[in-house]
Amino acid sequence: MFRAIQTLFGVTIVGFLLLPIVAILPLAFTSSVFLTYPIEDYSLRWFTELATADAWRLSIMNSLIIGLGATLLSTVLGTLAALGMRSEVLPLASLLRTVFLLPMVVPAVVLGVGMQMLFVNFGLASTYPGVIVAHAVLCVPFVIVSVSASLQGIDRAVEKAASSLGASPVTVFHRVTFPLALPGIISGAVFAFATSLDEVVITLFVAGPNQRTLARQMFSSIRENISPTVVAAALLLIIGTLCLAGLAAALRWRQERNALRAAP
Amino acid sequence: MQPFIQFEAVSKSFGAHTVIDSLDLTIQQGEFLSLLGPSGSGKTTILMMLAGFERPTRGTITLEGTRIDQLPPHRREMGVVFQNYALFPHMTVAENVAFPLEMKKLPRAEIATKVERALDMVRLGQLKNRRPSQLSGGQQQRVALTRALVFEPRVILMDEPLGALDKQLREHMQLEIRELHKRLGLTIVFVTHDQSEALTMSDRIAVFNGGRIEQIDSPFVIYDTPRTRFVAQFIGETNLIEADVVNVQGGRATIALSDDLVAQVDAAPELAKGQKAWFSLRPERMRLGADPAGDNALTMTIADCIYHGDHMRVQLAQGQFTFTARCERLAGDWKVGAPVVVSFDPRDCTVLAP
């Protein structure tokens, strides 16, 4: 009895989370210009629209440029931060960690307003570097969390062994620490890219018309003219995100399996 | 002869906590030295200072006359075998073993030959393309050992390397390491808390307690003539009882465990009449039954008799004392509650200053 209620509750919650997505996605394939059921005829015209209309094409390009830029920047910075906070000699490590993770909890609106004001002073407002930096701030916490976790899984004795076998600290890093942390770095980068891809709020504040990203374009086109192109774009985003999430999960699974096996 | 490794007045503190206090220790070339002690006695700290992972707070460490205590680990040429093996999980067995040779920048062909030969020596040639995670504990242990030996370091340091293995494998590895030590003339410093391991393998044992060396001697001397109460208790099993020295005469002493329990023992030179002392007697040195051939024959009561397969353990009571004796399984039929005559040779007792 209790078990049945449990199952029912679970199914309800999953349905609540998934139904809105499932309900709208078929409309990407409608031939009508309205977002309404029933679908009378199926077509790929909205995907064609996505690929050919300048506004949509530009926004997809922008999302890729900004996403890759923010991923690169945040992965480098986040990895360095995670490495730095690992050493016990740093007395403020735990305080620093809190500061680095702050963008996860600070309301995006607050960050957006602050960055806009700051970027105007630096001439970064409405520029690609500006948007990339803004996104990177949001992405860094994900990289730090992921890389820290994988660094924690590295047995210090392995690094000690390397140095006793004649490896200098630099060699220990690039032959032992880095390869062992790599799955965490890659999965951090995946999270960073996914975060940048669906970021809207901060983009609204710091991006100009030329840096309109896919998410931002969807947001405005919903308000201006509701066309099934938005749903086609959403489908694209969901598929992209699922692929990335799958990649991250696969990497994590592999790492956990290795860690499990390495334990004596 | 110049000592190979020398610790001079080495101290190590972590904050206010002193782990090693002014320690002197010399290690000879080709020696197998065990550092034995309970956990927290400082033995691992000594090893870590030798390997370079810890720096002494005070004092100097020299290797062949050269100071090494400030050198970083990668300049010390010491092969370290860690408790959990510390193999590189992302490299194959062959890559693990090749690592120290690559660090020495040897030519590729020479590395390949050396790795091949080293792995064959420990019968791991078949497994060279496996990852450490695909090996058993004993195989991982052998890889760790090979990796530490292959670059011909000046000293091999081992930190409880056999702790994670089961008993049978551990005994096998003990013999294997001992064999390697003899064959290659290695200098080995071996940290362990397992006294039987230390007795089996070592040329000398340093018994640590509270950051100091209680005694450093060959296994025979450590076992047969412990110099302190701690050593007597920590190595092997012993009956240890506080006694009064009643008389000292010509190398023999008479000691009283209680009013009616008096024993003759070989006296240490520093023993004086009227002193308190600790009397130590190994269970296997006690003989039960008739034929009191020695100078000591005491009558005790059998309190319990425990069967151990290859031997019997007999608990003996006398007044407020309990003794444990170890006897042959077939030596006699001991009845609980019966009186029995216990005899032992004065040479087999040790009397220790309090």
Describe this structure in words.
The complex is a heterodimer of chains A (264) and B (354). Chain A is mainly alpha-helical. Chain A contains eleven helices and no strands. Chain A is globular and about 70 Å long. The mean pLDDT of chain A is 85. Chain B has two domains: 5-233, Rossmann fold (3-Layer(aba) Sandwich); 241-352, Beta Barrel (OB fold (Dihydrolipoamide Acetyltransferase, E2P)), CATH 2.40.50. Chain B has eight helices and 20 strands. Chain B has helices at 43-51, 93-103, 108-121, 137-149, 167-184, 195-201, 219-224, 229-234, and strands at residues 5-14, 17-27, 32-36, 58-63, 66-67, 78-81, 155-159, 188-192, 204-209, 212-217, 239-249, 252-258, 261-266, 276-281, 287-288, 296-307, 311-318, 321-328, 339-344, 349-352. Chain B is elongated, with a radius of gyration of 25 Å. The two termini of chain B are 35 Å apart. Chain B: It catalyses: ATP + H2O + polyamine-[polyamine-binding protein]Side 1 = ADP + phosphate + polyamineSide 2 + [polyamine-binding protein]Side 1. Chain B: Residues 5-235 form the ABC transporter domain. Chain B: Belongs to the ABC transporter superfamily. Spermidine/putrescine importer (TC 3.A.1.11.1) family. Chain B: Part of the ABC transporter complex PotABCD involved in spermidine/putrescine import. Responsible for energy coupling to the transport system.
| Strand element count of chain A | 0
H-E string of chain A: HHHHHHHHHHH
Please count the beta strands of chain B (DSSP E, at least 2 residues each): 20
Radius of gyration of chain A: 22 Å
The CATH architecture assignment of chain A turns out to be Orthogonal Bundle
Count of folded domains of chain B: 2
What portion of residues of chain B belong to β-strands?
Answer: 35-45%
- Taken in chain order, the helices and strands of chain B follow as EEEHEEEHHHEHEHEEHHEEEEEEEEEE
* CATH T-level fold name of chain A: MetI-like fold
Strand fraction of chain A equals under 5%
Q: In CATH terms, what is the architecture of the largest domain in chain B?
A: 3-Layer(aba) Sandwich
Helix content of chain A: over 70%
Structural class estimated from helices and strands of chain B: alpha+beta
The CATH topology name of the largest domain in chain B reads Rossmann fold
